[in-house]
Amino acid sequence: MPAAHILYATATKTRAGVESAPAAGPISRGAWGCARDTFIWDLSSIEIKPTALREPLHLLSGGPEVLAALRRRIASGDGAVMGELYEAAYHPLLADLTTAAKNDRGVAVLLNPHLSAPSLGLDKSGLRELRQAGAVTTAYNHVDESTEFWGHAKPWIFADKDKPLEAWVGNLAWAPQSLKRNELTTVLTDARAGAVHEWTSAAIADDPDRMLAAAENAAQHGVLVDDPRTGAKVLADQMRATIIDAKRGETLHIATKGIDDTAMTQLIVDAKARGVNVDVYVRDLAPDDADMLEQAAVTTRVLAGAFPGWRVNMIAGRRDATLGTAFLWNNMTRVAGGTSRDIGLYLQGDARDQVIDAVRGLEQVAGRGHSIRTARALGFLTTTS
Fold it and tell me: What is the rounded CA–CA span in Å between residue 363 and residue 122?
């Protein structure tokens, strides 16, 4: 089975940087150990449930438009609301959740443990009012004091009466800066919504065993998660596999908020060297990665300065695509020791084509951006990790 057709498999424990032999057999819960251990995920043995992976998605495009749509969805619902906040900074959204909590709808929110970081906004009064209204708020916990985890997945789940469970998965921060951003958000109402719900619910309950089981179940439905709390690296590994599996003459389309991981960049360079047509759209590009891409003559458009609101994260090959919250940043995509909690979708068929078309539409809005040479001269190359 081609590497890019894989979703999850048995994990083989190795030392960082050591290639692991393919592991046979179905995945076992015990294979995903605690985040203190170092893992390289072997993805060679898996079972795919292809139906949902190929069906067209309900896609929402934009920043302010999607944020407004989420607020309308919260206000119009009559059931429970569950979600994850990377920032608790947008007062209107916090007020909407507070109103829902006061109406006894059941509101639960997973908070990024770094809400007080200087780079993030925090509406302390809005968060306090939300808690006082009866909402359950808890942080995505650390394993120990020396490990810094970031809650970056940001899904929202709605459980209304007499309606299918609904999950929103996208990369918007649901914060004031989202009003100036462009992103793709998917609205799921099939089994994937249930998978997102259970994974988020398990984290809110602070139950690592449930989190492991939820990650495994999610992968079977094409919902890919990275979770440093449990060691799951399914999204990052599938992103890596899509690049590795690209063949001579095929097109590899990479659109991402940032690239700052020379190991991932080397995979892109290797793909170019074996005759893959590689096309990269990136907002934040680190200097070392820029040098590698430029030397390999990889077609790259740098959007920093030209389109600062770019937040799309997609890697698409001939057979499949991933769309998610993880950038090609070291803390998200490195083989071991990642610190970011992320989520994404594995897509084939019509869904893959639909997402590629949507990303290309945003790229047309963005324009051609800058060449690496021009971006360097203008001071737009940046270290993102």
Answer: 31
Q: How far apart are CA 196 and CA 311, in angstroms?
A: 21
Distance CA 254, CA 316 (A): 7
Cβ partners under 8 Å of residue 382, min gap 6? 284, 285, 286, 304
DSSP symbol at 231? T
Query: End-to-end CA distance of the chain, in Å?
Result: 34
- Give the separation between CA 202 and CA 162, rounded to whole angstroms: 24
Average of per-residue pLDDT values in the chain: 84
Q: What is the C-alpha to C-alpha distance for residues 336 and 41, in angstroms, rounded to an integer?
A: 9
Give the other-Cβ count within 10 Å of 210's Cβ. Answer: 16
- Which one, of 150, 172, 148, 167, lies nearest residue 226 by Cα? 150
User: Tokens for 126?
Assistant: 């809005």
Type of residue found at 75:
A
Nearest-angstrom CA–CA distance, 60 and 85: 19
Nearest-angstrom CA–CA distance, 222 and 347: 7
Count Cβ atoms below 10 Å from residue 185 Cβ, excluding itself: 25
How far apart, in whole angstroms, are the C-alpha atoms of residue 271 and residue 251?
10
Q: Could you report the per-residue pLDDT of 257-304, keeping only the tens digit for each? A: 999 999 999 999 999 999 999 999 999 999 999 999 999 999 999 998
Query: Residue 338 is which amino acid?
Result: G
**Residue 23 C-alpha from the chain's centroid:** 26
Edge-to-edge, what's the strand order for the sheet holding 184-188? Answer: 58-61, 184-188, 166-170, 156-159, 80-85, 107-111, 136-139
CA distance 125 to 89: 10
Q: Tell me the backbone φ, ψ of residue 302, rounded to 5 degrees.
A: -95, 120
Q: Which residues pair with 244 in a beta bridge?
A: none
Our CA angle for 288, 293, 294, nearest 5°, is: 95
> Tell me, what amino acid is at 161?
K
Give me the pLDDT at residue 298, please: 98
Query: Half-sphere exposure of 295 toward its Cβ, with a 13 Å CA cutoff?
Result: 10
Angle between helices 262-273 and 234-245 (to 10 degrees): 20
Domain architecture of the chain: domains with CATH: 54-225 (3.30.870.10), 231-377 (3.30.870.10)
Q: Of 311, 290, 314, which Cα lies nearest the Cα of 302?
A: 290
pTM for this predicted structure: 0.86
